[in-house]
Give the backbone structure.
Amino acid sequence: MTIYQPDLVTVVDVIDETPDTRSLRLEFQDEATREAFGFHSGQFGEYSVFGAGEATFCIASPPTRPGAIECCFKLVGKVTTALREVDIGDTIGFRGPYGNWFPVDEWRGKDVVFVAGGIGLAPVRCVIWNILDRRDEFGDLTIVYGARTVQDLVYKRELQEWQARDDVTTVVTVDPGGETPEWEGRVGFVPTVLAEVAPSAANAVAVICGPPVMIKFSFPVLEKLGFADDAVYTTLEMRMKCGVGKCGRCNIGSVYVCKDGPVFTAAQLKKLPAEY
Ligand SMILES: Cc1cc2nc3c(=O)[nH]c(=O)nc-3n(C[C@H](O)[C@H](O)[C@H](O)COP(=O)(O)OP(=O)(O)OC[C@H]3O[C@@H](n4cnc5c(N)ncnc54)[C@H](O)[C@@H]3O)c2cc1C
Ligand code: FES
């Protein structure tokens, strides 16, 4: 068996999040692999459709819920188009978990602020459920999530579930012009809404993932709120091929995003060449 040989997984559920974004729930076919499989929040895998190739997605379900893994992908090209054709009962390939992870255990006792945009909620959702499943170990939780339009919001049912809980503050927004007449959430760009919500930075960490422009304008907001660069974590989505540090596809300077990342602090990113 080579390091590139995937495990076989069965698609056990398919959920359309938006017109171009879909979630899959996957179960390892080999019982021993299913039992032994473990991972950390923030790690990713290579998902393969036989004959079409592999695509890199985060593991979007939390490690606190073993037995199956979930991914959420946006239709952009060859492999994601092929993945769009798979249905419940079909077999695809998975290899992983790869990469580093969010140091959730180090955050015990701290407040956690989640900032996400568009499909960037997928990796953040893994951490949100991981922490909600261990709720007593953490302080205040704040989620600020936005998408271009109401239609583009992913995990709509879970956003409602989080909004209904009184142990997490969940603020959902859409870009100006993206609202519908029925929309009852905020209207405004994520960095603006984050500044309005103004979560305390005292004894807190922030997890941020979304389009580059959202991250670019959210970093200064977090800084102004008092978050130190080493308390702000994000995950990069460079193009990858092998996922295991062999092909050189994902490097930024001397850093291999697949092995040294994909999770980095804002402090670490500031030291990298500006090509990510
Ligand atoms: C660690 C990591 C985690 C990721 N997690 C997710 C996830 O959870 N959900 C998700 O939908 N996507 C995720 N991505 C991005 C995903 O890997 C690509 O969108 C996917 O591989 C595209 O495959 P494709 O064959 O359909 O597209 P291709 O046919 O290969 O490409 C289609 C178009 O998309 C562009 N493209 C492809 N990959 C990337 C990329 N990584 N960054 C920018 N542009 C790209 C290409 O340049 C091209 O223009 C992640 C990437 C990384 C590295
Ligand atoms: S994806 Fe091959 S070295 Fe990182």
Remarks:
- Residues 4 and 242 are 8 Å apart (CA to CA).
- The pocket of FE2/S2 (inorganic) cluster (ligand 2) is lined by residues 240-243, 245-250, 256, 258 (CB under 6 Å).
- The chain has two domains: 7-98, 104-235.
- The domain at 7-98 is CATH 2.40.30.10 (Elongation Factor Tu (Ef-tu); domain 3).
